[in-house]
Structures are given as structure tokens and as C-alpha cells.
Amino acid sequence: MSTLAAPTRRSTRRWLALSILALAQFLVVLDASIVNIALPVLGAQLGMDTAALAWVITAYVLAFGGLLLLGGRLADRYGHRRIFLVGTAGFVATSALAGLSFTSEMLLAARALQGASAALLAPAALALLTHLFPDSGDRTKALGVWGGVAGIGSAAGVLLGGVLTATLGWQSVFFVNVPIGAIVLIAIPLLITPDVATERGKLDIPGSATITGALVAAVGALSAIEQVGFIHPLTLGLAAAAIILGAAFVIIERRTAAPLVPLEVFHHRNLTVGNIVMLLIGAAMVALFFALSVYMQAVLGYDALATGLTQLPLAGALVIVAGVVPAVIPRIGARTTLISSLVILAAGLVWLSFAPADAQFLVHILAPSIVIGIGMGGAFVTTTQLSVDGVEGGESGLAGGLVNTSQQIGGALGLAVLGTVAALRTDELLASGAPAPDATTGGFSWLFLGSAVVALVAALATGFARKN
């Protein structure tokens, strides 16, 4: 197995280095949401119908989610800093390519390459963080910054997408990545020393191929549910492929001498619990941001910019809590912090589900949004810490790939299942004669309640899981 010797001092200015790594993570999270607002304008200019526009999102998610584990392992094998820089350079180049696209085919290819680059960047960045902050106390604080940045990126995508599309055109949502990425590429070599490879075994090609295929098929099946339904041959075929390839991957990993994912890594119960919970948090979070954005615009009549502004209180609460949680964890424990955060998150989602079709932001939306931000901030930071605690340096890239994969798969799962639940409830209310705004609101109410159930299931999983 490949291992990397992490120098005792990877950086003399590690907090500055963390801010640059967080900036790169911000780009990855931002890119998952900023494109949504630009889709109608983009589609009109490139001649893409609704089904084709869905692939602008799906192409990115498929490549990102499918290649994350391989990206994490490549970082462990060839150096976390090196793979991080390769991924960032690729992300910058493919963002520029997407902005320059003049055909739908060119744009979709650029989006897939963007996702592949992000799959190299994200796990390597988290691995670098764990090396920069080997002390558990400092690492918890650093993960607080990390969680805050993720929250800002998710909420800021809607706001920035609206502003940039309205003022500079849809191309700007891609071009914005270029100067930020350039700053990262210049700063990181100056702030972080290279990894030193002490051993290199053979790369597990069969394992890489089967797990990548399984993840791509799984994400594809979940995306197909939204577009063609549960029982469509495409959905069923992709689901079957995911199961078969996943089973083949497990068999290969048990037999190979240098596995891509040593199954023993799941003996770390904190890592296992953290990834299960991250999958569930991803499901609740992606479904929430999607539904809240559509609800504010389609039902309440807000424009894209105003919709983004309404999500700032949620993001602000998330950032504040992400900064406070690192001081709370040593006092009451990570699991107690996580369970409390998940219960708070569920309470906020239940509260939001009561918002009517004629809701006023200050009366019906603001308070539950702040509660949701509090719960999400605590849950995200603590879950990320559990997912990387106790993992050896030579597998830190793998741990980063696992937790990012869990979040991406969870997001696709949540959007597919909870989005379908919302659509079915909306159709039911329309059939009963309810006005369209009331029917849509009723569907989103069920989605918010479903997200609350997901958060409570995550809390129960955390409570019942045994500690290391």
C-alpha cells in the first residue's frame, strides 16, 4: 500500500494555508449551486431544452461523485499537494472552457471534466488539512472553518448566480472560478511543503474501474429517477449495474494485495458513522436548498437575487455555529454535539414545513432558516471530524474521498427521493382541486418534513452506534 510521510511541519503559516485550501473548497461547493440560476438563460442561448439542461448538472455530479474515491487514493499515492494542484489547475481550465462554450456538447464535456477535476481537488484538500493540523484541538477549529466555507458556498451560489447572470451573462458563473483558482495555484506551493512518497505499490486498476463504474451508475440511477421515474428501464438498468459493480468491487478489494479502499478502514467506527451521517446530511441539505429556492421564486414570486438574499441568514447562522462548535466538542463530546445539532436541524425543517403559500419572509421563513443554519453548521463540522479522526496519514486522502463521496451520493439520493415525494404530493393536491400555489407549497411541505425525518434518522444512527 502506498504511504506518504507527512513532514512534522507542512507549513509555517498553516492558518493562511487553510484559508487558501478553504477557498478551493468554496469553489467546488459553489459550483454545485451557482449554475442553477443561469440555466434558463444558458438554455435559451445554446438551444437546450429542459432535459438537456438537466445534464448540465448531471454531467458534473456524475464525474465528481464517481471519481472521488479514486481521486483520494491518487492523492495518497502521488502526494496530496501535487494532486490538489493538478485538480485545481484542471478545475480552472475546464471552468474557462465551460464559459467559452458555444455548443451544448462543448458545455457538457467541460462540465464532466470540471467534475473530474473537483474529484481530485476535494479529497486532497481535506487530506492536506489533516496534515496541517495533527493536533485534535486545532484540527477541530480548522474543520469549523471548513464547515463554514461549505455552508457559505451552498447559499452563496444562489445569490452569486443571480447577480452574475443578470449583470454579466451566464458565462460569468464559470469564469468567476478562474481568478480565484489562480490565487490558489500561486499560493499553495508557497505555503505548503510537498509530500514525500516513501513507498509505492501498484495502483488497483480493477478496483478503481469497478468502484468508479458503480458510483457513476448509482448517481446516474438517482438522477434518472427525477427525469424518467422509478420503474423506467434506464433507472432500473443503472441501479442493477451499480449493484453488480459494487459487489465486484468488494470481491476485488478482499483479494488484492494493494486495494484501492482497504475494507479494514471501516473498522474505524467513527469514520463509518461519520460517512453514514454525512450521506444523510447531504440528502437533507441538497433537497432543502433546491426546494427553498424554487419555493421562494415559483410560489412567493421572488426574483433570483432576492431569493439569494433570503438565504443569507441561514448561511450566516451556519458560519457562526461552525466557528463555535470546535470549542463545544471537547466539552460535551463529538457525538453529543452531533446528535444535538441534528435534532435542531430537524426542528427547523419541521418549522419551515408550516410556511403557507402566501408566506412573509420575516414572519414565516426567517426564524426557521436560522434554526436550520444552527443545526446544519454543528452537524457538518462534527460529521467531517468523525470521518477523518483516527485515520493514518497514508489514508487521509482516502478518508477525504469517502466523506465527499458520501455527501455527493446523499445529495443525489435526497433530491431524487424527496423531490419525487414533493412532486407526488403536489399532483395529488392539484387533482383534488387545490390552487397551483397551494399544491406546490404542500409538496414542498412534505419535502421539508421528509428532510427532518432524514436528520432524525442520522441522530438515531449516531446515538446507537458504538464508539471506537
Notes on the protein architecture:
With 468 residues, this protein is mostly helical. It has two domains: 408 residues, Growth Hormone, Chain: A (Up-down Bundle), CATH 1.20.1250; 53 residues. It contains 16 helices and two strands. The chain has a two-stranded antiparallel ribbon with strand order 1-2. Helix 2 runs antiparallel to helix 15, helix 10 packs parallel to helix 15 and helix 15 packs antiparallel against helix 16. The chain is globular. The N terminus is likely disordered.
Would you spell out the secondary-structure blueprint of this structure?
Blueprint: E1 3-5, H1 14-46, H2 50-78, H3 80-99, H4 104-132, H5 136-168, H6 172-175, H7 177-191, E2 196-199, H8 205-228, H9 233-255, H10 269-299, H11 304-310, H12 312-332, H13 334-352, H14 361-388, H15 396-431, H16 436-464
Antiparallel strand pairs: 1-2
Quickly list its features.
single chain, two-stranded antiparallel ribbon, mainly alpha, disordered N terminus, 2 domains, 16 helices, Growth Hormone, Chain: A, 468 residues
Shape: globular
Class from secondary-structure proportions:
mainly alpha
- Separate helix tally: 16
Widest beta sheet: strand line-up:
1-2
β-strand number: 2
Query: Could you state the CATH homologous superfamily of the largest domain?
Result: MFS general substrate transporter like domains
Strand content: under 5%
Question: What summary fits the major beta sheet?
Answer: 2 strands, antiparallel
Radius of gyration: 21 Å
Helix proportion range:
over 70%
CATH architect. name of the largest domain = Up-down Bundle
Q: What is the residue-averaged pLDDT?
A: 83
